[in-house]
Amino acid sequence: MKHLFLPAIICRWLDERNGRPANWLDPAYPDFHRPQALISHAVWSGLDMPPVLDHARKNGFLLGDSGGFSIVSRGVSLDPVNVIRWQQKHCTVGVILDVPPYRISGRAYQSAGDIWDASLKRTLDNVCRGLEHYDYEGDSFRWWGVVQGENQEQMQRWYEAVAKIYPFNRPGEGWAIKPTPANNFYSMVRSVRFIQENKVKRVHMLMTTGIKTVAVLLGMLHLTGPIELVTYDSASAGIYTGNRHAWRIRDHGLTLAEWLPRVYTPKDFFEMPCTCPPCTWFKEEYKENPNLEDPLFIDRLALHNHLILFDFFDRIGKLAEKDPEKLIKTYTKANYGDIMRALRQGEVVRRSVSRPVKLVDRI
């Protein structure tokens, strides 16, 4: 089973700093070249696409997010025809313009049952309009469906409604799944059961940013029968960089930790005992007293964090292939029994894994 980590890439990481890249996409740097990323129509539409993105499209895996979440989070209006045309031009694969059944409250979002039917209808309308412009035979671009739902019944209903218009099951096509709630072990169980029951061969997990969640996902997929391809996107490295944290790998590749509680100054980053390319470059480029907003410092730290995350997921993938049950047990700990029963027997489990489970909860 092939698995790919697709970092969500932002515009500034495609600029060069001192003639060196701030991203992992440049083929001129084979030591850490990874031609894979997620780009969003909501961010990139109307912008010039740098050559490294075109190289990734042709030689790697560049997933074009439709920007559907922006419809509910920012109230934007998107045309499904414009979206698929942009994806066909710039992406290896692209997901349909779905309208998630969520209601945004501050920085949080909640599944909203009262708008479910309307969200699904708008999604189906978008699929119909986009399908008129999808040319499977004449183009290398592949279109993928999207599944929404906070329980098995909702996921199946959404999937069947979309698949009735177009099944997304030909070679190279697939489905994106939005686990709800996000980064929850039981959401992963539900997603894996859906994948197996509907014989999905290629899948992308939307907004699956939790490191432990990805590890459990890969372990479960190997246990239930590996599929052809699973991809997962994450903005974690960018978020950690924004908070000025620097990652390292420990515990034989099972844990990500921070070099320091926080990189308080660029000098802290300079003094880290790391020999990855961006750290080595920064040691050469370092000048006294740059501040925490210095673009060179931020971009070197961001690339360091992305390379660490690539390495970490590579290791997790090998562990999942070698001993998936051990990997799942390592990360789920006290929830291991419930997780495995839910995976094998389809038990409905709605307990959060973010809090301790008391005995009274089991009664």
Number of helices: 14
Assess the beta-strand content as a share of residues: 15-25%
Q: How are strands sequenced across the largest beta sheet? A: 1-12-11-10-9-6-5-4
Largest sheet: 8 strands, parallel
* C-alpha-based Rg, rounded: 21 Å
Quantity of strands, as a count? 14
Q: So what's the overall shape?
A: globular
Helix share of residues? 40-55%
Q: What's the mean pLDDT score?
A: 87
- The first-to-last residue Cα distance is 39 Å
Write the H/E string, N to C.
EEEEHHEHHEEEHEHEHEHEHEEHHHHH
Characterise the protein shown here.
The chain is of the alpha/beta class and 363 residues long. It has 14 helices and 14 strands. The strands form 4 sheets. Strands 1-12-11-10-9-6-5-4 form an 8-stranded parallel β-sheet. A two-stranded antiparallel ribbon has the order 2-3. It has a two-stranded antiparallel ribbon with strand order 7-8. β7 and β8 form a beta hairpin. α4 packs across α5, α7 runs parallel beside α8 and α8 runs parallel beside α12. It starts with a strand and ends in an 18-residue tail after the last helix.
Which features characterize this protein?
363 residues, two-stranded antiparallel sheet, alpha/beta, eight-stranded parallel β-sheet, 14 helices, 43% helix, 16% strand
Task: Please render the helix and strand layout as text.
Blueprint (H helix, E strand, L loop, with lengths): L1 E6 L8 E2 L2 E2 L14 E5 H4 L6 H9 L1 E5 L2 H6 L6 H11 L2 E3 L6 E4 L2 E4 L4 H16 L10 E6 L4 H14 L8 E4 L7 H13 L4 E4 L5 H14 L4 E6 L1 H7 L4 E4 L4 E4 L7 H5 L6 H9 L9 H28 L1 H9 L3 H10 L18
Parallel strand pairs: 1-12, 4-5, 5-6, 6-9, 9-10, 10-11, 11-12
Antiparallel strand pairs: 2-3, 7-8, 13-14
